[in-house]
Design brief:
The complex is a heterodimer of chains A (about 350) and B (about 450). Chain A is an alpha/beta fold. Helices cover about 40% and strands about 20% of the residues of chain A. Classes of the chains: A alpha/beta (about 350), B mainly alpha (about 450).
């Protein structure tokens, strides 16, 4: 039994010393699952081109990533948080409380959100925010008065849409994508139909972004593969996807225009296509110079050959930021948030 | 049984009837038996049917992952681009990034297409980009940096074709669909067909799928299961080293030494209950204790192994106790009778006889742990891109890694359909591992098991 004792005690020692004597030589990144593919593409190219080890990239969602980012300064905290939305003031405060004061905000580009349906399904080819609001909101405006949503078919919402039952698959509330969908589609439609005023008058401030609960709209808490599976099995389904995901699955999905604009990297970068959002990552300045390769990685991420219009990120579906040079300057100078904003 | 007793009690009613000619009641009973047999056969048939459907679905979907499309192309390593100073100094040449190598490979493929006299409307080297995997540049760069003297020569390379070209040859990418796919055009597919006839583009067995590291989402063709197999291996090592000694010690004490009282009863009931606890519960326990309280590194195989140890322990304890209990008491009595102490009787006689059963239970417990994904979700082994090989034993336990089932789950989520195929392929490898472990367990049992 001595060998057993030895191995057991060796493991116990390893377990205890693991946290203490663990010097880190790789960059650690966590956060948004939307940014994950881009970050992993960059990490892979970084590992190939530099002598630093390949950065460790994890997902978990924007909020979870920023929470870990704000846990403090030191080797056992992450260096970079990916986010599909800007950091909130509350989060900046939480960071500051734990000693994370100097944060560099880096915008890597834009992500388009598209509305797609089964390729052999009915002809969903053009949507407006109004269509989506009227189809999904629990309360809509009919003849100037607020009523419970009477629509069950897309053609009732807008005569030009197919005569099929409403079956919408939208991202669940834990997704950053949902926020963009609410803000750029539902809110816009709410204002256009005049429902916003009526809702506010009725004391329902958040009424614009409410979604009907009678089963016509389904929240997808998983990722886009799940939305795709739902649409695959429901000919009449319409789903919300990221542009990059759609572009990898054009054999199964067809995309619809929004306000008459087809989503593409061009229309998104010019701002014509309305439903898009910037993607960010946040760097802990205190770790620059401590964790080897951190600054090089951040600079590499926003270099023209990576994040530019012809780079691999753009090939994958990221919409390059026309103002990338500014971002490169911010990273090079290690400008922290709030220093010149 | 009741039927039989009814038949005897009803015997007087049979007076004057032949025993050879079955009466209505006997017929009914015989029919019930025949029906029951038919149900049984149908149940087994359904089971086999589902098994065949499942296995063939896995094989049909996953076999493609073991083959990959390669392009054979001679690349001219242009000194003007790769080593401007001409010193052949690897340090200086490192400054040329993979983005500097990509055009060389595109030029090389374009030149090869021209040289072979293939008729294609694609008239520039840049148009070859969609054919070639992004990994090719790194492959060529690594070769050049390892041997700088190659610069200036023309070297034959087997580079990976892009996932769309590969998908076309495997039937995943259809001609009708590529019109709206910005990653490839019909012209590229025509060129693929032409180059395939010339033998430049070919599919062959892809060892890298088994030994390689995971890749980013834009390079499905490069991804492999190797790193996560190592991750699983290190986890299983932790599970084996911890759960076998702890489990066996606990069972020996409970079975041979402990007094039977209310306290040991409670422990026994709890062990049985623990064996039935959903694995996700152990995951959240691991997150709270090992990561948040003890600050062990997240996503590390050590933590995964510790969590799976908790999960496997009850299984091992139960099977060990069963095999200890099956050793006849006469063996113990005989040992004690010739003057052995209690401990000697256990370690010299009972334990060796119970060993086959203990090992079988342990291997089955390990196999169960190997396929477990749920607890790994919570300790960060899912959602992690396993691109780094561990560089040593310590790093194997402590560096972030993935595990086989977690990697398969991760692949199934990714956008490029090529990853979907790889997920099925990964399942085949996982099943092979599980089958091998189960076969070892069966062999051990066959070889060493004794019956009394």
């Amino acid at each position: 039994m001595t060998t057993v004792k030895l191995t057991a005690s060796a493991l116990a020692i390893a377990a205890v010393s693991a946290s203490a004597a663990y010097a880190r030589d790789n960059v650690q990144v966590a956060g948004s699952s939307t940014v994950l593919p881009y970050a992993s593409i960059v990490a892979e190219a970084f590992g190939e081109n530099f002598d630093f080890p390949t950065p460790v990239v994890e997902s978990g969602g924007s909020s979870a990533g920023l929470k870990r980012f704000c846990e403090g300064v030191g080797e056992n905290t992450i260096d970079i948080a990916n986010a599909s939305r800007a950091i909130r003031e509350k989060e900046v405060a939480a960071c500051a409380e734990n000693g994370v004061t100097d944060i560099i905000e880096v915008k890597i580009g834009y992500d388009g959100i598209v509305f797609a349906s089964q390729i052999n399904g009915p002809a969903f080819s053009a949507f407006t925010p109004t269509d989506w609001f009227n189809a999904l909101s629990p309360k809509v405006v009919v003849d100037g008065a607020l009523v419970d949503n009477p629509y069950t078919k897309w053609s009732e919402v807008n005569a030009e849409l197919p005569d099929v039952e409403i079956a919408a698959f939208i991202p669940g509330t834990k997704h950053g994508t949902r926020e963009v969908f609410e803000e750029k589609v539902l809110e816009a439609g709410c204002e256009e139909t005049g429902a916003k005023e009526l809702l506010e008058a009725a004391g329902m401030e958040d009424g614009c972004i409410a979604v009907r609960t009678d089963g016509m709209s389904v929240d997808i808490d998983g990722d886009y593969t799940e939305t795709l599976a739902r649409i695959d099995s429901n000919q009449n389904g319409v789903g919300v996807f990221g542009l990059a995901f759609y572009e990898n699955n054009t054999d199964k999905l067809k995309v619809a225009t929004m306000d008459g604009i087809a989503p593409s990297t061009e229309t998104i970068s010019t701002g014509e296509y309305p439903v898009s959002r910037p993607l960010f990552f946040y760097v802990k300045k205190a770790h620059i110079g401590v964790i080897p390769g951190l600054k090089e990685f951040a600079e590499f991420f926003v270099a023209d050959e990576i994040a530019g219009p012809d780079g691999p990120l753009s090939d994958y579906g990221l919409v390059a930021d026309p103002d990338l040079a500014t971002t490169q300057g911010i990273v090079a100078d290690e400008q922290v948030m709030g220093s010149n904003m | 049984m009741t039927d039989a007793s009814l038949a005897t009690s009803g015997a007087p009613a049979r007076k004057g009837k032949s025993l050879v000619v079955p009466d209505a009641r006997t017929k009914r009973r015989n029919a019930a038996e025949t029906r029951f047999k038919a149900y049984g056969v149908a149940a087994i048939g359904a089971g086999i049917f589902f098994l065949v459907v499942l296995l063939s679905a896995i094989l049909i979907n996953g076999v493609g992952a073991f083959q990959q499309t390669f392009i054979q192309v001679p690349v001219y390593l242009d000194p003007a681009k790769l080593d401007k100073s001409g010193n052949r100094d690897p340090e200086e040449m490192k400054k040329v990034s993979t983005f500097g190598y990509s055009p060389l490979i595109q030029d090389a493929l374009f030149a090869e297409v021209q040289a072979q006299g293939v008729d294609t409307p694609l008239d520039s080297a840049k148009a070859m980009k969609e054919m070639i995997s992004a990994s090719a540049a790194a492959q060529v760069r690594d070769v050049v940096l390892a041997d700088p003297d190659l610069v200036g020569e023309t070297v034959d390379f087997q580079i990976l074709a892009s996932s769309r070209v590969d998908g076309y040859l495997k039937g995943r990418v259809q001609r009708a669909d590529v019109a709206r796919d910005k990653n490839i055009n019909v012209e590229h597919l025509d060129l693929t067909d032409a180059l395939r006839e010339k033998g430049i583009v070919a599919r062959r067995f892809n060892m890298d799928f088994i030994t390689g590291a995971d890749a980013s989402e834009s390079r499905a063709e490069q991804a492999g299961l190797g790193v996560s197999i190592l991750g699983s291996l290190f986890m299983m090592l932790v599970v084996l080293l911890l759960s076998l000694p702890i489990g066996v010690a606990a069972s020996i004490y409970l079975e041979e030494f402990a007094k039977k009282n209310r306290f040991t009863d409670i422990i026994e009931v709890n062990i049985s209950n623990l064996a039935a606890v959903p694995s996700i519960v152990f995951g959240i326990l691991g997150l709270a204790v090992f990561i948040q309280f003890m600050h062990l590194p997240q996503s590390a195989p050590l933590v995964g192994g510790l969590v799976l140890t908790l999960m496997t322990l009850p299984t091992i304890i139960i099977s060990t106790r069963a095999s200890l209990a099956s050793v006849p008491p006469s063996i113990r009595s005989a040992a004690l009778g010739v003057g052995a102490s209690k401990m000697q009787s256990v370690f010299h006689h009972v334990l060796p006889l119970a060993m086959p059963g203990i090992l079988t239970g342990t291997i089955l417990g390990l196999a169960q742990a190997l396929g477990e994904t749920a607890p790994l979700l919570l300790i960060g082994m899912v959602g992690y891109i396993a691109t780094n090989y561990p560089d040593g034993v310590a790093s194997g336990f402590l560096d972030p890694n993935s595990a086989m089932p977690a990697q398969i789950y991760e692949w199934a989520k990714r956008a490029d359909p090529a990853y979907y195929e790889r997920a099925w392929g990964g399942i085949i490898i996982l099943l092979v591992f599980l089958m091998v472990m189960n076969i070892i367990a069966i062999l051990l049992r066959r070889r060493f098991e004794r019956r009394w």
